[in-house]
Each structure stands twice: as structure tokens, then as C-alpha cells.
Amino acid sequence: MTTVACNKELMASDSLACDNDIKTTAQKIFRVGHDIVGVAGEYQAGLLFVEWYHDRRKSKPDVGDGFEAFALTAKSIFKYESRLIPMPIEEEFAAIGSGGQLAIMAMTLGLPPHAAVREAAKLDVYSGGKIQKEKL
Question: 22: Cβ–Cβ under 8 A, 6 or more apart, which residues?
């Protein structure tokens, strides 16, 4: 799956993707206007979400169960799941994806999101590759 971690200033992700059991890389965080969006789960669903987030007047795409995304805005961190309803995150940091819990632990210990993703990828078999990061 993936690891996406963020605080109120920065979002980071791994870049590992699989295509028919072959490792490849994929962009998982995107700048959309002034916001930063990060996706976890089925990659095509993530791309549909990014397209919809760019113009939320369009009808919501069907991203399926298991989809997760973050939107980091000037106001807060918002989490999206399959129904695409923005849920504000009250905590100072958050993480999603298969390595999300590992990244949360790393950030609890004081690491910034990009370092937390790197540490999570050491243990999570579905995360890896170069670390991508975007600052708000």
C-alpha cells in the first residue's frame, strides 16, 4: 500500500508501487492549488481523487473501500476515506497507509514526517523507494 505522513506544515510519502508484482515508483503527494494532497490505496483511485479535489464541484468519484487521503491546507489536515467527506484532524500530525501506524510512532518520538516515512518503510513491506515531500 504506502505510507503518507504529515504535520501542519509538511507532507511526505514513500514512492513504492507495484504493477503486476513488479516494483515501480509512483507519485503519491500532489500540490493542488495552495493545498497538498496525499493518497494511499489503489493508485487509480488516488488519481481520481486528486482530479476531483482540483474541482470539487464535479461529482464524487467512486474510489472504493480501503481508500485514504489527506489534504493539508492552511487551516488544518483533513482526512478522506471512501465517501470523500473531509474529516478534520485535531492532532498535530497524522499518517495513513500500511505504514501509517509506524509513522505515527516515529512522529510521536519527535521525527518530522519525511523521516517518519523513511523509518516506517524499514519495517512495512508495502512502503519503500525515495521519500517524496512537499511543504505547505
Answer: none
Q: For residue 82, with 0-12 CB atoms within 10 Å meaning exposed, 13-18 middle and 19 or more buried, which class applies?
A: middle
Closest CA to 13 of 24, 28, 30: 28
**Residues in contact with 89: Cβ distance below 8 Å, sequence separation at least 6, in sequence order:** 70, 76, 77, 78, 79
| Residues 104-113 pLDDT 10s | 999 999 999 9
Chosen CATH of 3-124 out of 3.60.20.10, 3.30.930.10, 3.10.350.10, 3.40.50.720: 3.60.20.10
3-class SS of residue 81:
coil
47-96 pLDDT tens trace: 999 999 999 999 999 999 989 999 999 999 999 999 999 999 999 999 99
Q: Where are the domains of the chain?
A: 3-124
